[in-house]
């Protein structure tokens, strides 16, 4: 299987940054583990072939798995005892490097910023948040000297962790923060990408406004 297309940008990222361990690569499938996040990534167009592959390596006790095939992902979720799943579209930026919002200045968060980040963003564990901070993967945004919000990159490389403080919402700072992260990601030589939950119309609207391309197919993230 060739590593190309918007659905496989997560696999492409971990391989290009050197943290991806190829477990199996055939003409019809690609199975990779990311050594940073511990996530497994499976791309396979064949349902029975994909399930057979996962069965062969089931002793690895998958705790976090992404399947770039919606049908296969749903079956794998039931078969391997996952407790939670996220069905989403992949979004990616393929345009020219965007210009920054002149209202916003950014800096990379460090460990002293952990308390305010942990207080306001609770969609990942505190341990994972600390790991993201250690990797220098969170940008804090300021306007007029005031912290307006933050955005970051999950351990496997996707954009996320977006938070704008209530008093600064509906003023375009969410777009400004994501634009800043897109530019930083492009400076590092990577394609900026992320995921949007299938029913999150507000996020789809923001991604379209920013010029992001949305995948036609859905991917499935699942965890225990």
Keywords:
single chain; 224 residues; alpha+beta; 7-stranded mixed sheet; 11 strands; 4-stranded antiparallel sheet
* Total of DSSP H or I helical runs spanning 4+ residues: 7
Number of beta strands: 11
**Strand sequence of the main sheet, in spatial order?**
1-2-3-4-11-5-10
**Percent of residues in beta strands?**
25-35%
Give the structural class: alpha+beta
Radius of gyration: 18 Å
- End-to-end span in angstroms? 28 Å
Q: Spans of 5+ residues with little confidence (pLDDT < 50)?
A: none
List the SSEs and their pairings.
Layout: H1 9-16, E1 20-25, E2 29-34, E3 40-44, H2 47-56, E4 64-67, H3 70-79, E5 84-92, E6 105-108, H4 114-120, H5 126-134, E7 138-143, E8 146-153, E9 159-164, H6 173-187, E10 193-197, H7 201-209, E11 213-223
Parallel strand pairs: 3-4
Antiparallel strand pairs: 1-2, 2-3, 4-11, 5-10, 5-11, 6-7, 7-8, 8-9
């Amino acid at each position: 299987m060739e590593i190309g297309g918007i659905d496989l940008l997560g696999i492409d990222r971990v391989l290009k940054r050197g943290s991806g361990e190829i477990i199996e690569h055939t003409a019809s499938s690609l199975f990779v583990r990311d050594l940073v996040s511990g996530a497994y990534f499976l791309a396979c167009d064949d349902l029975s072939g994909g399930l057979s592959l996962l069965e062969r390596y089931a002793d690895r006790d998958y705790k976090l798995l992404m399947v770039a095939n919606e049908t296969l992902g749903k079956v794998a979720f039931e078969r391997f005892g996952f407790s939670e799943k996220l069905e989403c579209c992949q979004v990616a930026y393929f345009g020219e490097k965007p210009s920054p919002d002149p209202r916003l200045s950014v800096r990379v968060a460090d460990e002293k910023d952990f308390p305010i980040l942990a207080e306001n963003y609770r969609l990942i564990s505190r341990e994972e948040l600390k790991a993201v901070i250690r990797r220098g993967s969170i940008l804090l945004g300021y306007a007029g000297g005031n912290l307006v919000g933050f955005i970051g990159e999950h351990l496997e490389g996707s954009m996320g962790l977006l938070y704008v403080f209530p008093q600064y919402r509906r003023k375009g700072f969410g777009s400004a923060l994501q634009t800043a992260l897109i530019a930083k990601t492009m400076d590092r030589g990577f394609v900026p990408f992320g995921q949007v939950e299938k029913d999150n119309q507000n996020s789809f609207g923001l991604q379209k406004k920013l010029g992001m391309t949305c995948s036609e197919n859905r991917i499935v993230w699942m965890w225990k």
